[in-house]
Specification:
Elements: H1 5-14, E1 17-19, E2 40-44, H2 60-69, E3 74-76, E4 82-84, E5 87-93, E6 97-102, H3 116-127, H4 138-141, H5 147-151, E7 162-166, E8 169-173, H6 181-185, H7 195-201, E9 217-223, E10 227-232, E11 246-250, H8 255-263, H9 278-284, E12 289-302, H10 312-320, H11 324-332, E13 337-338, E14 346-347, E15 350-351, H12 362-375, E16 385-391, H13 394-411, E17 414-420, H14 422-431, E18 436-442, H15 449-452, H16 469-480, H17 484-501, E19 504-515, E20 520-521, E21 537-538
Parallel strand pairs: 2-11, 16-17, 16-18
Antiparallel strand pairs: 1-5, 3-4, 5-6, 6-8, 7-8, 9-10, 10-11, 12-18, 12-19, 13-19, 14-15, 20-21
Helix pairs in contact: 10-12, 16-17
Length: about 550
């Protein structure tokens, strides 16, 4: 079995010191490859980004671009090992105090130095309630001292457990050991941003005429709902290894338009492949079809504070009455697997079991679903009706139509379909103006907590508003666990509670599909579907 990231992370944490060593930092062009004279790439990004402020975003729509323009302290290689980026080396004391040493001479794209003080300010801004970041809870989930209390408004940002020992040295103090500290440090919310720039321009700091970046590329053009263009940043610390000079991101949400423009030669990498064209495209363009497993789960989330979904019996009934195998194998039919856990059946070296009712015969599940619904006051004479929201995309519509017809046939439930553009839907979710909503989560790192933390009481990503002290306790115990077996036991407890309370219905576990032009080299997504322009190159064609 492939070594998971969690295993790598644990072995790194066990060592007290790490120094930068040789490794592939960017594009690795095989010997003898003829490169195109014009090194430009066009990627479909799937939607218009809500923002390019790393502290104001929460999805892969934004992180795909942010990952190209802002540099992390560390990153995770495809084999799960940790790669030094802005941080050249690090050591830890008792796995609770981490000292990170920044690379000499690193600068922002305007030539000013990137310092440890910039990182301190950035992380303080992330957890500050004034920022309102959807990822405000993330440093607390990393167990950085006072991070949770700051995000809850109980302490001031300057009490965060991070300090600059000097311009090139950062000290991070944790409340307890965290085996996933380094992989979590690689998340896009943890990249430094320029305090001088933000203080000067406020919310307008990400405009092309203002933005200052730290990564391989810098935004030069942003035409809303049309394109974002980024060009090579000559002040990037590893610019000499970058090959592609210009990248264009398109916000095409229509999967059909995505494929049509790919066929017309206007796009090099699609955002996805439409389910209704997949079989034909695989037959006719098989060499250009990329299908890879992904640590991601598609689900329908409930507003658990709003009737009727403040009743867990109703939520569980809808979960039981959804024919997930049909959705995964017939509606999608690209290799997706029916989901009965919110995280993954296997993740971070841990195996998680589905609830007992997942293995029941379909007839028994439906009978129990009807009983629960009737017990909650809904039946043929008083049918349940609710609004099901999804972001505008053909596949989401197909799945919603299938789900609503299953609930109608199996339970007599009326799910009224609504759709909104991506940015609008995110606002709707955070404002609590929904009954049930289509959502999905791609792991931020290879551990079940990346999924499960979203349902902790008060977590900034907990838009379901689910709250169960026993669930919170299971995750606290998992974080304190001394080994994988113990951690897995507590994660199983958490999943069992989710299966009973059902703040969200897991529908299927993802695969990630793309069409990729044969002249694009270096395209190698990891199991989170991260792929970076700096790693790619255009072959002569």
């Amino acid at each position: 079995m492939k070594t998971t990231r969690k295993h790598i992370a644990l072995s790194l944490v066990a060592a007290s010191i790490f120094c930068a060593c040789s490794g592939a930092f960017a594009a690795s062009v095989p010997a003898g490859t003829e490169l195109a004279e014009k090194q430009e790439l066009v990627r479909n990004n799937g939607s218009e980004p809500a923002s390019l402020d790393p502290h104001k975003v929460e999805s892969n729509v934004e992180s795909a671009i942010i990952s190209d323009i802002f540099e992390r302290l560390v990153s995770v290689r495809n084999d799960g090992s940790i790669e030094p980026r802005l941080a050249e080396k690090w050591e830890n004391k008792d796995n609770t105090v981490w000292i990170l040493h920044l690379r000499p001479g690193i600068t922002w794209s305007d030539g000013t130095a990137i310092t440890a003080k910039d990182i301190v300010w950035s992380w303080q801004r992330l957890v500050d309630t004034q920022t309102g970041s959807p990822y405000a809870s993330f440093p607390g989930n990393m167990h950085i001292v006072n991070a949770t209390e700051i995000a809850q408004g109980k302490k001031s940002p300057d009490t965060l457990g991070v300090k600059a020992l000097d311009d090139a040295t950062l000290e991070v103090t944790l409340t307890q050991p965290n085996a996933a500290f380094l992989p979590m440090l690689a998340h896009t919310s943890m990249v430094p941003v320029d305090p001088v720039l933000i203080k000067r321009f406020g919310d307008k700091w990400t405009k092309p005429e203002h933005i200052v970046t730290s990564g391989p590329y810098k935004i030069t053009q942003w035409v809303v709902n049309e394109r974002i263009v980024a060009e090579r940043n000559p002040r990037y610390w590893n610019d000499k290894e970058t090959v592609i000079n210009k990248v264009t991101y398109l916000p095409i949400s229509s999967e059909t338009a995505d494929v049509n423009r790919y066929k017309a030669g206007e796009i090099d990498i699609t955002s996805t492949i439409p389910v209704n064209q997949f079989a034909q495209l695989k037959k006719t363009m098989g060499a250009e079809v990329s299908v890879l497993p992904q640590l991601a789960t598609y689900y329908y989330e409930f507003n658990t504070t709003k009737p009727p979904f403040n009743d867990p019996r109703i939520r569980r009934a809808l979960n039981m009455a959804l024919d997930k195998d049909i959705i995964a194998e017939k509606v999608m039919a690209q290799g997706q697997r029916a989901a009965w856990v919110i995280s993954q059946p296997e993740i971070g070296g841990v195996k998680l079991n589905s609830p007992e009712y997942a293995s029941w015969p379909r007839e028994k599940r439906l009978a129990e679903a009807k009983r629960l619904l009737n017990e909650a006051g809904y039946n043929d004479s008083h049918p349940l009706s609710f609004n099901l929201l999804y972001n505008t995309m053909e596949t989401h519509q197909r799945i919603a139509i299938a789900a609503s017809s299953m609930w109608k046939k199996n339970l007599g439930v009326e799910a009224k379909l609504q759709n909104q553009e991506w940015k609008t839907m995110l606002d709707t979710m955070h404002n609590g103006n929904f009954d049930a909503v289509r959502y999905a989560w791609i792991a931020d790192y290879d551990d079940a907590s990346s999924f499960l933390n979203n349902f902790r009481t008060g977590d900034s990503e907990n838009t379901s508003k689910y709250s169960n002290p026993a669930y919170d306790e299971a995750l606290i115990n998992a974080a304190k666990a001394k080994d994988l077996a113990a951690r897995g036991k507590y994660y199983q407890q958490a999943e069992d509670l989710l299966a009973q309370d059902v703040p969200a219905i897991p529908v299927y576990h993802y695969v990630r599909t793309h069409l990729v032009k044969p002249w694009v080299g270096g395209f190698a997504p990891d199991d989170l579907d991260n792929f970076y322009t700096k790693d790619m190159y255009i072959k002569k064609h």
